[in-house]
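HOLO CASE FILE
Compound: nicotinamide-adenine-dinucleotide
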Amino acid sequence: MIKTEPTFRESVDLMFNRAAALMDMPPGLEEKIRVCNATYTVRFGVRLRGGLQTFTGYRSVHSEHMEPVKGGIRYAISVNQDEVEALSALMTYKCALVEAPFGGAKGGLCIDPLQYDEYELEQITRRFAYELAKRDLIDPAQNVPAPDMGTGEREMAWIADQYARMNTTDINAKACVTGKPLNAGGIAGRVEATGRGVQYALREFFRHPEDKAKAGLSGDLEGKRVIVQGLGNVGYHAAKFLQEEDGAIITGIIERDGALFNPDGLDVEAVRAWLIRHGGVCGYPDAGHATDSGSVLEEDCDILIPAALEGVINLENAARIKAPLIIEAANGPITAGADDILRERGTVIIPDMYANAGGVTVSYFEWVKNLSHIRFGRMQRRQEEARHQLVVNELERLSSALGNSWTLDPRFKEKYLRGADELELVRSGLDDTMRIAYQSMREVWHDRDDVADLRTSAYIVSIGKVAASYRAKGL
Ligand code: NAD
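Model generated. Tokens follow.
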């Protein structure tokens, strides 16, 4: 029998079902958690280039067991209802797994953003935001979007401003969307957050010898050969941090127009600069080129990071993927059928709902910052420095009173005396979140004989948390 590929939403549901079958849940509750609560489709016109152009957008709310619901807005020509619903379901499970107190949602607009200039994109974004906000599908207490593929800080700033214009007396207006620029109510470290989360996830994985052994890997990230697909927000930051801070070697970078490879390592900053300047990686010097970019996914490496779009590892190519460890920085890059093949072969997959949760985690911090109307660290930083100064002064006083000649290393003093700023606090909160969530998944992975992979473990942990919320509501 020829196996056919399920849709993205069916793929997510199949993975959900696999985990739910191992849980003791009343069938009614299982169904309630799996289904998507509502999807709103909007078609709106914007006057552009002397004519009226009609756009189609979606906002899907998967689960309101906690509110507000949260999830990014994607701009891509391929956006469709099935995709938005799959992504909103993943948001529910992701938020539960990392204990971000939100239900799951997602939005999308069918548009190729590269075909419009900045002014036009602003008109389109504002109109889309207006359509959503007037139905409470953007609201600090009910529905809080964020960036996703094809959108970033700029679009989030327009959305925040549009909401504020429509709700002039809402003191919490800034909390209606996250991923804003710092000067428009954003938080330090949000742009890098998803890629940073991928780095923290890998570091945590490499802290556990049994887990590494399952992938046939050992040691730490130093010298590990990494292939990244998609050098956008997530892929670029993940690759950059792994290269610069952990000593990993980025041997392959796959983009829309082709792929680069170099066994000695590609300079991530230089490739990114080339990509921004030329709109693709084609022509980049110091690397081998492949026009059939898919083939580079199948190259030998230690860690494969799909960070572009869904369904790239599927029934067609799964059996040829050589990486022993795949970390899903993108949402849904591995189809359910490919997941079966890879699991059978013993490939370790760090699943999307965990791997890319850094974005929503820092979005959660941003939302809290907006609601509390104060930057993190503003009250404590100098007080912390003053207390550390007291300790240093006392140590130096004792040293001189005892006639000792030792002094504190100036580098230690500088580091110890400096109070944490917002960026450090955000990174600390993100690191803590990624470690704890990983440990909750691996506990299930190692403790249960009927669970053989991290994805099923992740679903079991998150479905359990969502079920507990529903039970607490008396459902
Ligand atoms: P982005 O638009 O910044 O980057 C996507 C990159 O992938 C671009 O460089 C694009 O050229 C490249 N790309 C597109 N199609 C490709 C193809 N067929 N082959 C190779 N490269 C291709 O998007 P992003 O924000 O980095 O999101 C990437 C993935 O991460 C998506 O699945 C998204 O849902 C997920 N994600 C993003 C965030 C976030 O905070 N931005 C958070 C969680 C998950």
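CASE NOTES: The first strand starts at residue 38 and ends at 48. Residues 147-150, 194, 229-235, 254-256, 293, 307-309, 329-331, 356, 359 surround nicotinamide-adenine-dinucleotide (CB under 6 Å).
CLOSED: yes
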